[in-house]
Design goal:
Length: 421
C-alpha cells in the first residue's frame, strides 16, 4: 500500500498546487511506456523459457523560486503473472521510486524525502553504490534497478566540490521474484520471507558523511570519500533449519557497520583510470565478518576509430572481495559474484544524433572458473523511441555453489522498446 499512497500524495502535491496559484509554468511532467521481451534458448528445466514485461514510468517536477519537488513512479506487469498461480513470476508491482522536496540556498541545499543516488566509477559493478538496495524481482545485474529510500540530506558546496551529511531513516524490504523466473536464485525447498529482519529495528538511522570534488591538475581527478555508520548495504539470509533438502524459511537480515568507501576517476591522456574501494567494520555480529572490496579499471579511448566519427573504448576491470574471519559467512554464503573477477570489454560510441552505442565483454571468475558473456546495443528513433537489444550467456562454476550456479546455465536474447513523452 505504501507505493500507492505515495503516488496519490505525489499527484496531489505536484498537480494540485494550482488551487492556490497558477504555477503551470513551474510544472514539468514526463512519462515512458515500454515493453521488454527476453527469450532463453538455454535455461534450467524448472524455469520459464521466456518472459514478456510491460512497464511504465511517470515523472513529476515542480519548481518555485528556490524550491524543487520531484516524484517518480514505476509500475511493471509480467505476462506470466496473468496465468495460473504455478506459472507466476511474481514481477507485477507498483513502486514509488522517488518523492522529495529540495530547497536551495546560496551555497547549500536541503533535501528531504525518498530518493535514489548513484555512487561509483566502474563499468560492470559499482561496489561503493550502497545507498539504495536493488530490486530482486528483476535482473540483478541491471545497475538502474534500485529501490528509493527515505532520507534527509544537507549539502554544502565548496569551490571545487561538495560536502553532504545524509541520514537514511528506514530500511527497505527486498522482494524476490518467484521460482519460474530465470533470475530467481534460491533452491525450491527454501521459502523466502520478504519482511526484513534487523538488529536494532528498521528505523535505526544510517548516517553518511560524503565529500566529493575535482582537481584542476594536468591529469584531472574526480574523487569521493564516504563515511558511514548504520546498516550495511550487504545483507544475508537467516535460515531456520539445515540445508538438506527439507523445507526451510529464509529471511533477509540487516546488520550494523562502520564503513569507509571511495570512488575515483583520473584522466591520463586518452585513458580513464578508475578505482573503487571500501572497508567495512562489522559491529558485533556473530555471522558476518569484517570485509573489504576493491575494484580497479582502465578505459582507453581511440577517437575517430577507423576514420569514422565513432569512439572505441577498450575496458579492463578487476574486482577482489575478501572476508577477514574464517568462521563466518564467506563470499559464497553472501552470494557475492565479483570476488575475484576480471572484466574485459569494449564500448563503441557512434556519436550520431541517435546516441547509438555498443557495449560487449566477458567477466571471468578466476577463482571458481565461471564466465559471463554479454553484448548490448542501444539507440534512439526520432528522439522518443528507445531501442535496446542485448545478449547474455552465463556458464556457471562446477567447482563451487556460486550465485551463478544457483541461477543456472542460461543464454538469453532480449529486446526492450520504450516510448518517452
Amino acid at each position: 500500500m505504501k507505493p500507492l499512497i505515495g503516488a496519490v500524495f505525489a499527484s496531489i502535491f505536484l498537480l494540485g498546487t494550482n488551487v492556490y496559484a497558477d504555477f503551470s509554468d513551474d510544472m514539468e511532467t514526463s512519462a515512458k511506456v515500454g515493453i521488454q521481451f527476453q527469450d532463453y534458448s538455454i535455461h534450467p528445466q524448472n524455469k520459464h523459457g521466456s518472459n514478456l514485461t510491460a512497464y511504465q514510468e511517470l515523472e513529476l517536477k515542480y519548481y518555485h523560486d528556490n524550491f524543487k519537488a520531484y516524484s517518480k513512479i514505476y509500475a511493471q506487469e509480467d505476462a506470466a503473472d496473468a496465468q495460473e498461480a504455478s506459472e507466476h513470476n511474481g514481477r507485477t508491482f507498483l513502486r514509488l521510486d522517488e518523492l522529495y522536496g529540495q530547497y536551495d540556498f546560496d551555497n547549500s541545499n536541503i533535501k528531504l524525502g525518498k530518493s535514489i543516488e548513484f555512487w561509483g566509477a566502474l563499468e560492470v559493478r559499482n561496489i561503493t553504490d550502497g545507498f539504495n538496495p536493488i530490486d530482486l524481482r528483476n535482473d540483478p545485474s541491471e545497475k538502474t534497478n534500485k529501490l528509493g529510500v527515505w532520507n534527509g540530506a544537507y549539502t554544502y558546496y565548496t569551490d571545487t566540490g561538495e560536502l553532504s551529511l545524509i541520514v537514511k531513516f528506514y530500511e527497505q524490504d527486498q522482494h524476490l521474484a518467484q521460482l519460474p523466473y530465470v533470475y530467481y536464485f534460491l533452491p525450491s525447498f527454501i521459502h523466502y520471507n520478504s519482511k526484513l529482519s534487523s538488529e536494532k529495528g528498521r528505523s535505526y538511522p544510517s548516517t553518511y558523511l560524503k565529500y566529493s570534488a575535482s582537481t584542476e591538475w594536468e591529469m584531472p581527478l574526480d574523487y569521493a570519500v564516504i563515511l558511514e555508520h548504520g546498516y550495511d548495504s550487504q545483507r544475508y539470509f537467516n535460515i531456520d533449519g539445515p540445508l538438506n533438502g527439507s523445507p526451510v524459511n529464509a529471511q533477509n537480515r540487516a546488520y550494523l557497520v562502520n564503513k569507509v568507501s571511495t570512488y575515483n576517476t583520473l584522466v591520463v591522456g586518452s585513458a580513464l583510470v578508475k578505482l573503487e574501494a571500501l572497508y567495512t567494520d562489522v559491529i558485533d555480529n556473530k555471522d558476518i565478518s569484517d570485509y573489504y572490496h576493491v575494484g580497479a579499471g582502465i578505459e582507453y579511448t581511440i577517437a575517430n576509430f577507423l576514420e569514422n566519427n565513432g569512439d572505441l573504448g577498450l575496458i579492463s576491470e578487476y574486482y577482489y572481495y575478501r572476508t577477514l574471519e574464517g568462521d563466518k559467512y564467506d563470499d559464497l554464503g553472501l552470494f557475492e559474484t565479483m570476488q575475484n573477477d576480471l572484466f574485459l570489454g569494449l564500448r563503441y560510441s557512434f556519436n550520431d544524433d541517435s546516441d547509438s552505442s555498443f557495449l560487449g565483454g566477458v567477466i571471468l571468475d578466476t577463482q571458481y572458473i565461471e564466465q559471463s558473456y554479454s553484448m548490448k546495443y542501444e539507440t534512439r528513433v526520432n528522439d522518443v523511441v528507445n531501442v535496446k537489444v542485448d545478449w547474455q550467456y552465463i556458464e556457471p562454476s562446477v567447482r563451487a555453489l556460486t550465485a551463478y550456479r544457483l541461477i543456472g546455465r542460461h543464454q538469453r536474447i532480449g529486446i526492450d522498446l520504450s516510448y518517452s513523452f
